[in-house]
Amino acid sequence: MQESQHGVELRGVSRIYTRGGEGVKVFDDVDLSVNAGAFCALMGPSGSGKSTLLNLVGGLDRPDSGDVVVGDTFLSDLSESALAEWRSENVGFVFQGFNLVPVLTAFENVELPLLLTGLSKAERKEHAMHALELVDMGDRAKHRPGQLSGGQEQRVAIARAIASDPGVILADEPTGDLDFESACQVLDLMGRLHTELGKTILMVTHDPRAAERAERVIHLDKGRISESSEGTESADDGFREVKPREGEGA
Ligand SMILES: Nc1ncnc2c1ncn2[C@@H]1O[C@H](COP(=O)(O)OP(=O)(O)OP(=O)(O)O)[C@@H](O)[C@H]1O
Ligand SMILES: [Mg+2]
Fold first, then answer.
1. Which of 71, 79, 156, 187 is most exposed, with the fewest beta carbons within 10 Å of its own?
2. Cα 192 to middle of ligand 1, angstroms
3. What's the predicted TM-score (pTM) here?
4. CATH number of the domain located at residue range(s) 37-63+79-241 in this protein
5. Partners of 16 in the beta sheet?
6. Which of these, 16, 233, 199, 248, lies nearest to 94 by C-alpha position?
7. Of 102 and 247, more confident
């Protein structure tokens, strides 16, 4: 597996959803810069745009204005089909509810995104088993999701996210449905993806203990982005705005 070359940048990004003729402004001209290989936690109240931000970075959604740049790719330059191909090679998603396919085995779930790549069957097997072993689930390859605990399911979902060796991992409340011990295992794993594999990680969480694992804590609120660095412990004294723009009111 390769270290990430994928920094993430939002440049003047706005995203407005229109609902029933009314606009919901989720982001208004925000900037954010995340270095390649960084581990960031995203926190903020419900509806503050955390999932929207992950969707923009992963190319599942497009901004109304501004640029999303991942590595040296401007996502706005890509057509829908080019974006889907880019996503399958460069981004791994992890969700709160695991989102495994219930009728497939752990191995088949991990292999699934590899079917979109040009890998041969033997290469797919090698990649999928390697990913399962990385999350310590190699001995459960033939089990279906219903035969696994929540923590084990999430580890399989992480294997699926890393199977194609993407530079960026986007995790949306990956420990939200887990008991304390399983959550710790998943957070240990996220930490290893950062320290051992050098992945760029954006992880949404409501849990300050989960956020403490990250190097940076990015706060979203009312369409704005701010941050505290070095985990939540410094939230009181380390709070600062990210790149405020000229003429923008507080
Ligand atoms: N497809 C959509 N159409 C219309 N509005 C949307 C859509 N997706 C998100 N929104 C709105 O955008 C805002 C941000 O939503 P988002 O899901 O990003 O919040 P969140 O921070 O992830 O919240 P939560 O913690 O509850 O998951 C909300 O007001 C939401 O209702
Ligand atoms: Mg969300």
1. 79
2. 30
3. 0.89
4. 3.40.50.300
5. 25
6. 199
7. 102
In angstroms, the first-to-last Cα distance of the chain is: 43
- Ligand at shortest distance from the CA of 43: 1
The residue whose C-alpha atom lies closest to atom 5 belonging to ligand 1 is 17
* 145: Cβ contacts below 8 Å, ≥ 6 apart: 98, 100, 101, 102, 106, 109, 153, 156
Q: What is the pLDDT of residues 131-179, one digit of tens each?
A: 999 999 999 999 999 999 999 999 999 999 999 999 999 999 999 999 9
CA angle 173, 99, 71 (to 5 degrees): 65
Q: pLDDT band at residue 2, thresholds of 50, 70 and 90? A: low
What lines the ligand 1 site, CB under 6 Å? Answer: 17, 19, 24, 26, 44, 46-52
